[in-house]
Amino acid sequence: MEKYVPDIYQKDIYNIKYKNLASRGIKLLIFDLDNTIALINEWSPSEEAIKLFKKLNKSFEVIIASNSVKQRVKNFADTLGIKYLSHVKKPKGLPIEEYINNSKYNQSEIAMIGDSMMDDIVCGNRLGITTILIDQLGKREYPLAYLRRRKERKIQKRLRDNNLFTKGRYYV
Ligand SMILES: [Mg+2]
Fold first, then answer.
1. What pLDDT sits at residue 127?
2. How many whole angstroms from 115 Cα to the centroid of ligand 1?
3. Closest residue by Cα to residue 113 from 52, 23, 48
4. What are the sequence ranges of the domains in the chain?
5. Residue 142: what pLDDT?
6. pLDDT at position 61, please?
7. CATH number corresponding to 2-161
8. Which of 9, 17, 23, 101 pairs with 157 at a CA distance of 20 to 30 A?
9. Beta carbons of 96 and 30 less than 8 angstroms apart
10. What is the 142 CA–ligand 1 centroid distance (Å)?
11. C-alpha of residue 36 to centroid of ligand 1, in Å
């Protein structure tokens, strides 16, 4: 069950304490896209997101790693001025693992941020990096993500029963 539990849990990407991450030695932030940065029916980042990433780019290396298609991910990454990996197939996420192995950072310097326990958190925990869960931005999901969300709810019930994680109880 521990593989589902994030190191940090916040409401959204705007509530994450990035200064704390920097002082913990985090240098590379790997963001999920759908329902983390944007709704699935949005095709460009919000003003709020642009502002946040402008700030983050000054203190961290920032990339988007998404299961979504290249054209969609590229569109966001280009506007935000960051690199991206598409089709990463989280939770396996081989392209992410390769990116990390080819980077100058070790595991303790990297954080994964996303809205899916089953995909983002399991992937980050498997890679041995810091994992940050946020609540999903919107209710709408792609069909596959929807099915995984149903499974996630069952897992979250078990986690709650075992006092490992409770939705809405944020922690840093
Ligand atoms: Mg997502």
1. 98
2. 5
3. 52
4. 2-161
5. 81
6. 98
7. 3.40.50.1000
8. 17
9. yes
10. 10
11. 5
